[in-house]
Structure formats: structure tokens, C-alpha cells
Write a sequence for this structure.
């Protein structure tokens, strides 16, 4: 990971950061809408300062967070107090048993880790019922106008397109997303509350279009695409 807690929080204090956060929060609400919350355990891998984990706690989940950065975990503990279980650790090698949580949440973390496939595999291992993945879209206008030639933190990120991440998810889990949307279809210069940009940015778009995309993969009530990826344990023989 490349962010520290202070720089991460300061981005959301900017006009563009606040605007993006509001749209990401609406996107999160949309993709999580089909999941029950009461007494359901949810793990966020790469929880950062706990900004989105707190949203999930407010929705009713029992939340746990893991992050590799000591400064991020310290900031998350200051935010949460005793409301969440927080751990410093590597999301590619989680200290949890299989199916330890009903749900796992990865939000803008795969593009900043060294092994996104391994992290997604770990997420699927510890999730009993489903996974949500949110990510910065490499095929978006935001990437081409604001990220591709930038310096600093974002220049070191390994962004993925919707098609790349959907294929990765299928290879790892054996399931396709049941819901997927994106927000922020234009570059940062369009992230404004003025007309017409407010109207443009208040909509959800196909997952391959916007700057930030999210998908939900359910392991229940869905037929696996191939049994090889679907088994969580060795099937019993009759």
C-alpha cells in the first residue's frame, strides 16, 4: 500500500475528494442493498482509516478491519473505539479460518497491492456468502485524463479495467457478479455540484464506464459456472 493515514484523509477534505466520496457512498449503498445486516459479520480488507467500514457499521454489520499500514489501523482505532475489531496484517495472508465471515469487502485496495489475485482469493476463502469489490477503473476518462501521466501515489497504482477484474473474480471464485455499477463518468474537472455536472454525476453507469466501479459477488442462490472453483471443501461422495 502507498497511502498513509494523513494523506488519505486529506484527499477527502478537498472539494473533489468530498464530491467523489458522496458518489462512492451512494454506490456502496446500491451494491450492498441485497445483503442482510443484523448479526452478520463483515470483514474489510484494506480498511484504511475506517471511513467506509464505519458506513458499513452504521448499516448494521458487525465489522472487522485489516490493513497492512500501522498508521491506518491507528487512525481506524481512533475512529471506532471498541465498535470494531481491527488488525494490522497482510490481506493476501489473512489470519482467519475459512468462512469466518458472512461477507468480505474490498474497496479501492486491489489496485494498491502487490498481489490482487491472491488478495481476492483470500477474500473468497474467508467469506461464506459473498464479496464486494470496489475499484478505480483503468478504462475510464478519469484514468486517461488524471492518472495515466500523474506522479506520486497514483502513478504507482496498478489499475484494472472492469473486464480484467470481472475475469479475475470468475477465475478465483467461479461466480459472476450479481450487480455492478460505476460512478463519476468524467475526469476530475467534471466532479462539481454545478449544472450540468451534478446531474451527470448523480447517476449510476455501466461498470466499465465510470472512474469508480463496484460489483457484488454472491456465493448463495447462484449456480457456479464451474464446480472446480465452487467447492469450499472436498465434496462428500454418496
Amino acid at each position: 500500500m502507498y497511502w498513509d493515514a494523513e494523506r488519505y484523509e486529506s484527499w477527502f477534505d478537498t472539494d473533489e475528494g468530498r464530491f467523489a466520496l458522496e458518489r462512492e457512498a451512494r454506490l456502496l449503498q446500491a451494491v450492498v442493498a441485497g445483503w442482510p445486516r443484523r448479526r452478520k459479520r463483515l470483514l474489510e480488507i484494506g480498511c484504511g482509516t475506517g471511513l467506509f467500514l464505519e458506513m458499513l457499521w452504521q448499516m448494521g454489520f458487525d465489522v472487522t478491519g485489516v490493513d497492512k499500514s500501522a498508521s491506518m489501523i491507528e487512525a481506524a482505532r481512533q475512529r471506532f473505539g471498541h465498535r470494531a475489531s481491527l488488525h494490522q496484517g497482510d490481506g493476501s495472508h489473512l489470519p482467519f479460518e475459512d468462512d469466518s465471515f458472512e461477507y468480505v469487502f474490498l474497496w479501492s485496495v486491489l489496485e494498491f497491492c502487490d498481489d490482487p489475485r491472491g488478495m481476492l482469493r483470500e477474500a473468497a476463502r474467508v467469506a461464506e456468502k459473498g464479496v464486494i469489490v470496489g475499484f478505480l477503473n483503468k478504462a475510464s476518462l478519469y484514468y486517461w485524463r488524471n492518472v495515466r501521466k500523474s506522479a506520486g501515489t497514483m502513478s504507482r497504482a496498478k489499475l484494472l479495467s472492469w473486464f480484467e477484474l470481472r475475469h479475475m473474480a470468475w477465475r478465483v471464485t467461479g461466480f459472476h457478479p450479481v450487480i455492478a455499477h460505476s460512478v463519476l463518468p468524467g475526469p476530475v474537472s467534471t466532479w462539481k455540484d454545478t449544472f450540468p455536472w451534478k446531474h451527470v454525476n448523480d447517476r449510476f453507469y455501466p461498470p466499465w464506464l465510470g472512474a469508480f466501479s463496484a460489483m457484488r459477488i454472491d456465493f448463495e442462490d447462484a449456480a457456479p459456472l464451474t464446480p472446480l472453483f465452487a467447492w469450499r471443501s472436498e465434496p462428500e461422495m454418496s
Summary: The chain has nine helices and seven strands. Strands lie at 41-45, 62-67, 85-88, 101-107, 127-136, 179-183, 212-218. The domain at 5-220 is CATH 3.40.50.150 (Rossmann fold).
